[in-house]
Design the sequence.
C-alpha cells in the first residue's frame, strides 16, 4: 500500500506538469479520478488500483470515437478511435475510479482483466461483440448478445442503425 | 500404485485418477462451461455410444422457470451439474445503439424498457447522468417524488420476485398473492403516470407531472395492506419446512466469489457484505432517510429470498418517511433550456409555442463530457455511462445492468448441485432478461 501512494504525493511539487497516478495522467471528473493509461500500461495500472483496494470491477465498456475525434483528453494522451472504459469500485473506501484506455483502430487489442477480476469475462465478451475489440488472455472471447455467425460489430459508429426491410409492393415504389 | 512426492507444501500423495473423490473431480472441471454451439454438437455426437457418463442438456430458452428467454447449457453427470453456460442475447434489441439516436428527452422511453420490472430505476439513472452532464440541480420535491416512486417500485419488483420464486419452487399459491399485492402498487403507478409500466415519468430536469390529489391516502393504503400480507408470506414460506429444505444451503457463494464476479445487490448482500449504494454512496436524498441494509449470512437461495422479503419492509419504512417529509414546490426544474413552457403559456405566446416545439423536436444540447452514475436498483448496481459530444443526442449511452453481471455467479452456484436445484438458483438471482440483453 505504501508504495502505491507515492505517485499521488508528487503533483504538488511540480504543479506545472499534469497530475499523475501510478505514472499515468489522471483527471478528476465530478469527484472521480479518471486515469488514462496507454494499452501497454493498462494491466499494470489496473493491478495497482486493485492493490489500492478497488476490489470490485463494476463495468467494462467501450466507446467508438470515430465521429467525435476532438474530445478533451489530458496532455500526453493521443486520441485513438476506440476507448475501453473500466469502472472500479472500492467497497472499503466507498470510492470509484475510472480507467480510459485509447485503443488504436489498426490493432484493436488490449489485455484482458480476467486474471485480476473474473467478473470481467462477460462484459469483455460484450465489448468484443459490439466493438470488435479483442482482449488478450480472455478465456472465451466469443459473441455474447449477437448470434455466433453475425458479421460486423453493431455499436461501431460506421455500423448503421438497424432497420427491417419492408416491401410496399402494392405502391410500386422504389423497393427500399 | 501410490507415490508420495515431497513438495514445498509437504508430502503429496499421487494416486491414480480413478481414486479421486467426486469432489476433487468436480473442482477440477471448474464451473463455467466455455463451448460454442458447434463444439457442443460435436461433443454430443462423439459421446453417443460411449460409456461417457457426462452429457450436455439444454434448459430453455422456453422453460417456464428461466424467467424470459434465458438458456442454460448444462453439463451433467447423472443429476449433478458440473459446468454451466448461460446463453443470452435472445432479447437483444440494440437498445444502446437506439439510445444514440434519441434525444435526451426521449432517452428514458428507451431505458425504461430495459429492466421492465423496475422501470423507474432505469429512467432515474439515465436522468441522473444527463443532469450531471447538464449541471442542473433539480428541485427538492422532484427528488422526493423520484425516491417515492423508486421505493414503491422496489416493493413491486420484490413482490414480483416473491411471486415467481414461490411458483418456481412449487408454492404456486404464492404466485397469486405476489401478483395481487404488486397490483396495489401498479394501480398507484397508473394513477400517477398513466401507465403500469414503461412510464417515462422521471425525465431530465424532474418528473413529468406532479403527484395527483389524494396520493398520500393511496400510498398510506398500500402501506396499511402490505405488512399483514408479508406476515402471511412468512407463514406460507419462511417458516415452512419444505420451503426451507428446498432453499437452505442451495446455490451458496462466498463473499469473495461474489465480489470477484462483480455481483451486486441482494446477491452480494446475501453473502454477508453490507453494500447498498443508497447508504454507502447516497444519491437523491437518501442520506436524510433512516433505513437498514438487510444482509444474509450463507449466500444461499434462502438468504436471497429473505433479503428481498425484508427489503420490502425496509422500503415501506422509507416510503412512510417520504410521505411525512414530502416538500412542497416545483416538480421540475425551472430552467427554460431543459423544461418546456407550461401548457397555458402556449396558447398566448408564440415564443412559448416555438420553444415547446424545439424542445420536443430538436431537444436540448448537453455540454461535452462523460459521466458514470449508479443507483441501487432492486437487482443491484444499475449504472449509466453517458458520453456527450455537445449535441442533443447522447454520443454513447451504456447501461450497466446488474442482472447481466449477477448472471456470472450462476455457474458457480450450480456447480456440484442437483439439476432440480438449478430452478431454485435461477429464480433466486431474479434476472430480468430485458436488462441482461438490452
Sequence:
Amino acid at each position: 500500500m505504501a508504495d502505491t501512494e507515492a505517485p499521488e504525493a508528487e503533483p504538488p511539487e511540480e504543479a506545472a506538469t499534469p497530475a499523475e497516478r501510478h505514472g499515468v495522467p489522471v483527471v478528476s471528473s465530478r469527484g472521480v479520478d479518471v486515469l488514462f493509461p496507454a494499452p501497454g500500461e493498462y494491466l499494470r495500472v489496473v493491478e495497482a488500483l486493485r492493490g489500492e483496494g478497488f476490489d470490485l470491477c463494476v463495468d467494462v465498456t467501450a466507446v467508438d470515437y470515430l465521429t467525435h475525434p476532438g474530445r478533451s483528453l489530458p496532455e500526453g494522451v493521443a486520441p485513438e478511435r476506440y476507448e475501453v472504459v473500466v469502472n472500479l469500485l472500492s467497497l472499503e473506501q466507498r470510492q470509484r475510479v475510472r480507467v480510459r484506455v485509447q485503443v488504436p483502430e489498426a490493432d484493436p487489442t488490449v489485455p484482458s482483466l480476467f486474471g485480476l477480476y473474473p467478473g470481467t469475462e462477460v462484459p469483455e465478451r460484450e465489448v468484443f461483440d459490439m466493438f470488435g475489440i479483442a482482449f488478450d488472455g480472455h478465456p472465451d472471447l466469443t459473441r455474447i448478445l449477437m448470434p455466433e455467425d453475425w458479421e460486423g460489430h453493431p455499436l461501431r459508429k460506421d455500423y448503421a442503425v438497424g432497420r427491417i426491410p419492408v416491401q410496399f409492393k402494392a405502391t410500386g415504389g422504389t423497393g427500399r | 500404485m501410490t507415490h508420495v512426492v515431497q513438495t514445498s507444501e509437504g508430502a503429496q500423495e499421487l494416486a491414480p485418477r480413478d481414486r479421486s473423490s467426486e469432489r476433487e473431480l468436480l473442482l477440477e472441471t471448474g464451473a463455467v462451461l466455455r463451448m460454442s454451439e458447434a463444439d457442443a454438437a460435436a461433443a454430443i455426437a462423439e459421446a453417443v455410444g460411449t460409456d461417457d457418463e457426462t452429457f450436455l442438456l439444454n434448459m430453455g430458452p422456453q422453460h417456464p422457470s428461466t424467467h424470459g428467454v434465458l438458456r442454460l447449457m448444462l453439463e451433467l453427470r447423472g443429476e449433478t451439474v458440473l459446468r454451466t453456460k448461460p446463453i443470452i442475447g435472445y432479447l437483444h434489441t440494440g437498445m444502446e445503439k437506439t439510445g444514440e439516436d434519441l434525444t435526451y428527452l426521449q432517452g428514458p422511453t428507451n431505458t425504461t424498457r430495459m429492466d421492465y420490472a423496475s422501470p423507474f430505476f432505469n429512467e432515474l439513472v439515465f436522468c441522473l447522468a444527463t443532469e450531471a452532464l447538464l449541471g442542473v440541480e433539480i428541485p427538492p420535491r422532484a427528488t422526493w417524488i423520484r425516491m417515492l416512486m423508486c421505493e414503491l417500485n422496489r416493493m413491486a419488483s420484490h413482490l414480483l420476485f416473491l411471486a415467481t420464486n414461490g411458483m418456481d419452487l412449487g408454492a404456486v399459491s404464492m404466485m397469486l398473492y405476489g401478483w395481487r399485492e404488486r397490483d396495489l402498487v401498479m394501480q398507484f403507478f397508473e394513477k400517477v403516470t398513466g401507465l403500469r409500466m414503461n412510464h417515462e415519468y422521471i425525465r431530465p430536469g424532474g418528473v413529468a407531472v406532479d403527484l395527483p390529489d389524494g396520493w398520500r391516502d393511496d400510498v398510506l393504503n398500500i402501506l396499511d395492506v402490505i405488512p399483514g400480507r408479508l406476515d402471511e408470506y412468512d407463514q406460507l414460506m419462511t417458516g415452512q419446512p419444505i420451503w426451507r429444505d428446498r432453499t437452505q444451503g442451495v446455490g451458496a457463494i462466498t463473499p469473495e466469489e461474489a465480489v470477484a464476479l462483480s455481483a451486486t445487490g441482494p446477491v452480494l448482500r446475501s453473502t454477508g457484505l453490507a453494500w447498498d449504494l443508497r447508504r454507502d454512496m447516497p444519491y437523491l436524498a437518501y442520506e436524510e432517510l433512516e433505513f437498514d441494509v438487510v444482509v444474509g449470512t450463507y449466500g444461499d437461495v434462502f438468504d436471497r429470498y429473505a433479503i428481498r422479503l425484508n427489503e420490502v419492509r425496509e422500503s415501506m419504512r422509507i416510503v412512510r418517511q417520504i410521505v411525512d417529509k414530502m416538500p412542497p414546490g416545483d416538480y421540475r426544474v425551472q430552467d427554460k433550456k431543459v423544461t418546456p413552457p407550461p401548457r397555458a403559456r402556449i396558447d398566448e405566446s408564440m415564443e412559448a409555442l416555438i420553444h415547446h416545439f424545439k424542445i420536443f423536436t430538436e431537444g436540448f444540447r448537453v455540454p461535452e463530457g462523460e459521466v458514470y452514475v449508479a443507483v441501487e436498483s432492486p437487482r443491484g448496481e444499475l449504472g449509466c455511462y453517458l458520453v456527450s459530444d455537445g449535441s442533443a443526442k447522447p454520443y454513447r449511452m451504456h447501461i450497466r445492468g446488474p442482472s447481466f453481471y449477477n448472471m456470472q455467479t450462476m455457474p458457480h452456484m450450480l456447480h456440484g448441485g442437483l439439476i432440480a436445484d438449478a430452478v431454485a438458483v435461477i429464480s433466486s438471482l431474479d434476472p430480468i432478461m430485458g436488462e441482461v440483453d438490452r
